């Protein structure tokens, strides 16, 4: 069946087929209106009973999804949540997170429901497993929250999806006892994690399962448009220097919110890499560090083969 609908473009009447209607639905709305891919709540570091942070940093990205009619009222399907967990386990996310551990830990527990799961909330957790006092040096949490619409029709219901990467690698390194220096994260390793977050968020299988949970077409699953970073210390003291230099009197930063370039298609590897590099450059500048551009150029330059 040839589905078409009348639309108004540039002051003229026109018609749009299904693909055009889906394209229009995904376009940025007018200035001042928050897009589906934005408006994420910043993550919060956990604290122990003495008020000390228990994590080195948390990265968060995600999207907001419109709801289809059936998804608005029905509870989450256990089968669909399990399918989302399988898609996440097969994605680039677990491999990217293990990169932070530099091969010291290879055991992990795959994504599965853990913690607060209800009829309209799914919380899927992946954990690296160590035999140190820091049991889970790296962790990932994907949360899907369908809107509670009972008794309210004032606004269009939206589902919220957040993807968190949680690292305790510095604490893990300290717990081993034989490390004689303060552990710092390498920028190339962070680049791998940034890329893994984005690659997973646009992964076809992950997108398909998110669309099924919200009862919408996959074309309506927006690409992530922001990244949050919250650290337990100044970013300048979180990163391995590797050519980075602190700018005198530049001020301190312990994280930030990094917006994505809406012109980039994050499904394309080269454009996703461009976005990752933009975020890392912003991270360095906001932290009062110089040298990030040169560091990224070295990282991205292929090593010539040896004779």
Helix content range of the residues, please? 25-40%
Low-confidence parts, pLDDT < 50 over ≥5 residues? 7-12, 26-37
Percentage beta strand = 15-25%
The figure for the number of domains is: 1
Structural class: alpha+beta
Number of helices: 10
Largest sheet strand order: 4-5-6-7-3-8-10
Radius of gyration: 21 Å
Record field, number of beta strands: 11
Query: What's the end-to-end separation, in Å?
Result: 61 Å
Explain the overall architecture.
It contains 10 helices and 11 strands. The chain has one domain (35-43, 52-300). It has helices spanning 18-26, 69-73, 78-89, 93-99, 169-175, 187-201, 204-214, 235-238, 269-286, 292-300; strands at 4-9, 12-17, 57-66, 108-113, 121-128, 138-145, 158-167, 226-231, 245-246, 255-259, 289-290. Helix 3 runs antiparallel to helix 7, helix 4 (93-99) runs antiparallel to helix 6 and helix 6 packs across helix 9 (269-286). Residues 7-12 and 26-37 have low confidence and may be disordered. The chain is α+β, with helices and mostly antiparallel strands and 307 residues long.
């Amino acid at each position: 069946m040839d589905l078409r609908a009348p639309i108004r473009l540039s002051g003229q009447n026109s018609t749009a087929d299904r693909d055009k209607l889906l394209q229009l639905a995904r376009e940025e709305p007018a200035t001042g209106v928050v897009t589906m891919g934005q408006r994420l709540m910043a993550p919060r570091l956990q604290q122990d009973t003495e008020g000390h942070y228990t994590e080195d940093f948390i990265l968060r990205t995600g999207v907001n999804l419109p709801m289809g009619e059936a998804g608005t009222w029905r509870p989450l399907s256990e089968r669909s949540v399990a399918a989302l967990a399988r898609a996440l386990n097969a994605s680039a996310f677990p491999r990217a997170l293990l990169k932070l551990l530099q091969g010291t830990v290879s055991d992990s527990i795959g994504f599965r429901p853990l913690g607060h799961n209800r009829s309209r909330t799914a919380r899927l957790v992946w954990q690296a497993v160590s035999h140190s006092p820091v049991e889970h040096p790296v962790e990932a949490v994907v949360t899907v929250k369908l809107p509670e619409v009972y008794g309210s029709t004032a606004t269009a219901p939206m589902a919220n999806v957040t993807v968190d990467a949680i690292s305790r690698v510095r604490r893990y390194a300290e717990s081993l006892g034989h490390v004689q220096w303060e552990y710092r994260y390498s920028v190339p390793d962070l680049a791998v994690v940034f890329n893994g977050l984005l690659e997973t968020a646009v992964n076809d299988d992950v997108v398909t399962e998110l669309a099924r949970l919200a009862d919408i077409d996959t074309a309506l699953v927006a690409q992530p448009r922001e990244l949050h970073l919250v650290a337990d210390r100044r970013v300048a003291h979180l990163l391995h220097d590797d050519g980075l230099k602190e700018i005198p009197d530049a001020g301190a930063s312990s994280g930030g919110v990094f917006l994505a370039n809406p012109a980039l298609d994050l499904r394309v590897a080269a454009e996703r890499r461009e976005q990752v590099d933009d975020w890392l450059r912003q991270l360095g500048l906001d932290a009062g560090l110089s040298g990030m551009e040169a560091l990224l150029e070295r990282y991205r330059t292929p090593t010539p083969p040896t004779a």
